[in-house]
Amino acid sequence: MADAPTFDPACPMSAFPVQIGDKWTAMVVLCLEARPRRFSELRQLLGSVSAKVLTDTLRAMERDGLLTRSVFDENPPRVEYRLTALGRTLLFLIEAARSWARDNLDDLLAARRQHDESPVPSPT
Length: 124
What we know:
This protein is mostly helical. It is built from 4 helices and 3 strands, in the order H-E-H-H-E-E-H. Strands 1-3-2 form a 3-stranded antiparallel sheet.
């Protein structure tokens, strides 16, 4: 599966401040960039996503017109997910966000750490 990214649980996208739909949508778009995929392939590539969360994400993306779900009359039934033209337009946005992350993620994470380690101000 060299034609799709494999997402490590420590992937910076999980800390990313800009999300498209939800935490997983951008990663699903990237997984479907090269070709259609089955549910089990997506789960394998995404690593830490639960079946329920992936199902919910795929349903929301289908509802929004970002992907199509094709059921093939086989035994057992085969289901594939494919990006639509609208879904492919997100690739430009995701690449811009990834570029921003490469340039700024260290500063963003440092700011979060500093904020989280600061004492909570007492009410006045």
